[in-house]
């Protein structure tokens, strides 16, 4: 079993239990809900392609989120899991490595977002064995690793709003910027910048994030060179000048005057 207890995750079965837990999470300050609608890499006993909930259970979570002015995002890899998610109110898919053209067309028609997490599979492929990751999970990781970048390209061709995430934590937390380089490899610097900014703001439901127009928050990372010409500026920390938050410099990483 993977992440089945604690402040992050909880095993929930049945419509009534899902409604109870959803309300409890919002009462405690959650911004949104994440559910697991297919198997995972870390979890040993559930195949990647198997759906995890019945439609009515997914609808219960989506209904509770909508009543709170929020949304549900779903961990899902397989076509079946993704389709069941989006047909029952989920508005964002995380991972989505095993999608196909028909699936992304359905996502696009419903305005469902996709957040790839390319860094996670790359990091586990390189470092998982040393960290004690079991053989079943390593094999699962290989399966999704080879499909992740192509999934990004398939989604973009269908005009799915493509965000950015890493899904890294714990011992792998220091590999975050690798996710940016992998997304650049998959879809180019311009589209990656869009994913990091405007696309993620749309997913979060706050378009004052992700741009520098009048009335927005004034958050920015100032770089040493134009990433459209020098993509590594997005993930090479030596080219980082400073971080601006709410219009104020909060981290001066270079020689910006």
Automatic annotation (TrEMBL):
Q: Which InterPro entries match?
A: Amidohydro-rel, Metal_Hydrolase, Metallo-dep_Hydrolase
Q: What organism, scientifically named, is this protein from?
A: Brevibacterium casei S18
Could you tell me which residue ranges the Amidohydrolase-related domain spans? 13-250
Protein's UniProt name: Amidohydrolase
Note the SUPFAM superfamilies from the entry.
Metallo-dependent hydrolases
Q: Which domain of life is it from?
A: Bacteria
An example Gene Ontology molecular-function term: hydrolase activity
Looking at the keywords, is Hydrolase present?
A: yes
The alphabetized UniProt keywords are:
Hydrolase
PANTHER family from the xrefs? ALPHA-D-RIBOSE 1-METHYLPHOSPHONATE 5-TRIPHOSPHATE DIPHOSPHATASE
Q: Which ranges form a coiled coil?
A: none
């Amino acid at each position: 079993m993977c992440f089945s207890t604690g402040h992050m995750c909880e095993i929930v079965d049945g419509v009534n239990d899902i409604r109870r837990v959803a309300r409890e999470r919002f009462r405690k300050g959650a911004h949104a809900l994440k559910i697991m609608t297919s198997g995972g890499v870390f979890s040993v006993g559930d195949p990647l392609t198997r759906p995890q909930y019945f439609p009515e259970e997914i609808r219960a979570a989506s209904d509770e989120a909508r009543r709170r002015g929020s949304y549900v995002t779903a961990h899902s890899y397989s076509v079946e899991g993704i389709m069941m998610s989006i047909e029952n109110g989920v508005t964002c898919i995380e991972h989505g490595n095993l999608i196909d053209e028909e699936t992304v067309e359905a996502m696009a028609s419903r305005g469902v977002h996709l957040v790839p997490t390319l860094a996670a599979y790359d990091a586990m492929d390189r470092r998982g064995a040393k960290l004690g990751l079991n053989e079943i999970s390593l094999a699962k990781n290989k399966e999704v690793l080879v499909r992740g970048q192509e999934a990004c390209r398939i989604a973009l061709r269908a005009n799915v709003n493509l965000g950015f995430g890493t899904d890294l934590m714990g011992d792998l937390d220091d590999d975050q910027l690798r996710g940016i380089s992998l997304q650049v490899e998959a879809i180019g610097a311009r589209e990656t910048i869009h994913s990091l900014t405007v696309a993620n703001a749309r997913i979060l439901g706050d378009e004052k994030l992700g741009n520098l127009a009048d009335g927005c928050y004034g958050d920015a990372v100032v770089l040493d060179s134009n990433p459209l010409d020098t993509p590594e500026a997005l993930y090479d920390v030596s080219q980082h000048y400073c971080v601006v938050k709410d219009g104020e410099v909060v981290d001066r990483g270079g020689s910006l005057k």
